[in-house]
Amino acid sequence: MLMTHVLDLQFGDRIVTLMAALVLVLQIAMVTQRWIVIHIRIFAAQSFFLAMIAATIAWFNHASHLYVAAGLTLVVKVVLVPILFERLVKRMEIHEEIEPIVNGPLSVVIAGGLTLVGYVVAESFYKQDEPGLGHNALAVAISLFLIGFFTMINRRKALTQVLALLSLENGLFLAAISLTYGMPMIVELGIFFDVLVAAMVLGILVYRIRETFESVDVSRLRRLRG
Amino acid sequence: MLLVALLLVPVATAVASFFARRRTAMEVANLVGFGAVFLIAVALAARVLAAGTVSLANGFFYADALSALVILLTASVALVCSTYSIGYLRDDQQSGALGDDASGKEQMAQLRMYYTLTPLFVFSMLFMAVANNLGVMWAAMEITTLVSVFLVTFYGKVTSLEAAWKYAIIGGVGLSMALFGTLVAYYAGRGLTGTEALSGLNWSVLALHADQLDKTSMRLAFVLVLMGYGTKAGLAPMHTWKPDAYSEAPVPSAAILSSALLNCALYCLIRFYILTSRCLGAQYPGRLLLLFGLLSMGVSVPFILIQKNYRRLLAYHTIDHAGIMVTALGIGGALGSLGLMLHMVFHTIAKSLLFLCAGNVSQHFRTDLFSKIKGGVMRAMPLTGVVFLMAMLAIIGMPPFSLFQSEFLIVRAAIVGGHVLTGVLFVLFGTGVFAGAIVHVGGMILGPRGDAPVVARRPWRDGSLLALASALVVIAFWVPAPLLELVREAARVVKGQ
Question: pTM here?
Fold first, then answer.
């Protein structure tokens, strides 16, 4: 009984869809989140589900190199980056709430609208005759990308913008594994390395902005004009 | 062999500078390293001219005339800037711009950072130009951003942090779009023969089968890539990081950013343009490119006219020229491609020269504002003043300088190709830029000398200025035959033959 499930492509598709839905819910939770530490943890949880999606797709499609991608996601985005950022938060003693520009309820409505756009765009990629996993996953990926973009515009705090950028990259990763079962190995390694370094570079910048301005409110960065 | 050496030498230079203990050692390492890179780039160009394309490791590394030209330009700019930066940073150290810590440890740390990051920066650009795999090309482009962010924060001022933040965030978002585009292009080529595993993202493979790529996907891919690499090239409306980053980075880095890195971003765009135009015909990508190109040219005009800061003025000039080159790519055809490649060469020389001149002025007068200099740069700094004015006349397209020829070629391509409106707007915006530049820079350089002292001769910087200036003058009348051949070959690659 269990064995038939474990090999059934339809069952795999359902699992992927379920987890993609969780990823999307977490992304929307990030839009409304007011506390930076919880924001970081939601990001970690989202990355965890993403790694699980990668592992599931790897299992059902016998795409063994996706296991590596899943493992890297676990190490980099679930463990390293959140630890790095939580330390940063502790060191900078950020206690204040995140003030979004558009208020919570309206942000959720906008995020919902962007999800709709994601589904419309994903439809053009869907081919009836092509069996495979992750039709929903692609739509979720595009939604993640758009919502991440919106969160970046919507937030003033430097670290939140970085987290939004990283969740936007999560969307890309999801698109990569659901469209093409991942990029070639070397490319994926390069991308993970870049994400890790980018997170570090941005972390350093956030720290220095905090030191210099006594605040991580990027709307205070407005000396350079014209 | 050449390709491996091209990548290893800058890395070795960075390592040597990182472990060097004295300033002189770092300077020598950089100079020798970039000298070697330049020679290798020349050798590579010669090889490509003789053999057509050079590839290595099953096509993982790949260089055709287009890559060779971009590599040659990058290597030349890097060599000139490394010579210049010796004089520039020594002055900075003396004047206390690197912090006035008495023990000199902080200053050394900063110098080490500069001399280590610059070779890494150049490495990432060279890597990008020889990477056949579009994903690897993207990763190299991302490294250029990550490395140069710390060059922008070099002086650690409040404004440089702001500039670096804008640069990192806007660049990060832009590049994530480019990655999405790359991904969609990979999807478009899935299932083609010969595209299994790693080679499926190889440009040379995709270009060979471009007509079989999935058309819907390529449409989306090109839009995403245009927005993505367009951000790195500084096309409007994603250009806002550019004036900030260029005016805050140390001048030699700004020169590399505004000439070599611009070429690299355009290079990525051109690679995708070739794929898309072979798949969908030249009209679809061409229209989008024309839109963004003309918008960038148009946006830069008012900012140039009202500009108060001459380093920001140069940055807006770069946005204008990015627009010109993208417009040329959009016009396409044999004439447009040739104009584009010639313009890339000429712009690289003139723009890096302008930034180096601006660096001299900025260090001498200790301000970046026109209103504080008031005039008389030519009297206080004879060589810099003359060269600055000359390069400025060149960059706004004054005959007999070479940029006039390439811009004229592009306008002609526009008219011949039936893009009459494009040609008219091109000339109109060009006139605006012309007026703005003449008013501001003319006022700054000419006129009586104020209370600023006259400068002595400074071999490191005067040498690099003179080298670039003579290149600018010579190339206006005579382009060496091998270089012209390389430009022609590169234009043929762009046109897609």
Answer: 0.91
List residues bridging with B131 in a β-sheet: B61
Residue B449: phi, psi to the nearest 5? -75, 135
Chain A nearest CA to B311, separation (Å): 12
Give a yes or no: residue A218 inside a domain.
Answer: no
Token code pair at residue A55: 């592992």
Domain count for chain A: 1
Residue with tokens 């109109």: B428
DSSP characters over A86-144: HHHHHHHT--SPP-BSS-HHHHHHHHHHHHHHHHHHHHTT--TT---S-HHHHHHHHHH
For residue B181, the chain A residues in CB contact (below 8 A) are none
Cα distance between residue A130 and residue A127, in whole Å: 6
Closest CA of chain A from B287, distance in Å: 22
| Contact by Cβ (8 Å): B497, B64 | no
A67, exposed or middle or buried, with CB in 10 Å at 0-12, 13-18, 19+? middle
Nearest CA to B66 among B352, B353, B274? B274
- Please check whether residue B456 lies inside any domain of the structure: yes
| pLDDT per position as a tens digit, A64-90 | 778 888 888 898 889 988 998 888 888
**What is the count of structural domains for chain B?**
1
Evaluate whether residue A214 is within a structural domain.
Answer: no
CA atoms of B292 and B289, how far apart (whole Å): 5
Contact B136, A187 (CB under 8 A): yes
Tell me the C-alpha distance between B38 and B71, whole Å: 9
Full domain range(s) for residue A70: 2-199
- Which residue in the set B169, B183, B306 is minimally distant from A161, CB to CB? B169
Q: Which structural domain range is residue B390 located in? A: 297-497
CA distance A42 to A132: 29
The pLDDT tens digits for B286-318 are 999 999 999 999 999 999 999 888 899 999 999
Whether residue B198 lies inside any domain: the answer is: no
Integer angstrom CA distances of residue B369 from B143, B245, B307, B311, B375: 32, 16, 9, 8, 11
Residue B473 lies in a domain: yes
Q: Which of B161, B168, B190 sits opposite A202 (nearest CB)?
A: B168
Please tell me if residue A125 touches chain B, with a CB cutoff of 8 Å: yes
Contacts of B227 in chain A (CB under 8 A): none
> Per the domain annotation, does A62 fall within a domain?
yes
Residue B319 within a domain = yes
Please state the ipTM of this predicted complex: 0.87
pLDDT at A132 over 70: no
The answer to whether B141 touches B185, Cβ cutoff 8 Å, is no
Half-sphere CA count of A189, side-chain side, radius 13 A:
6
> So what's the pLDDT on residue B338?
93
Nearest residue on chain B to A63, alpha-carbon basis: B197
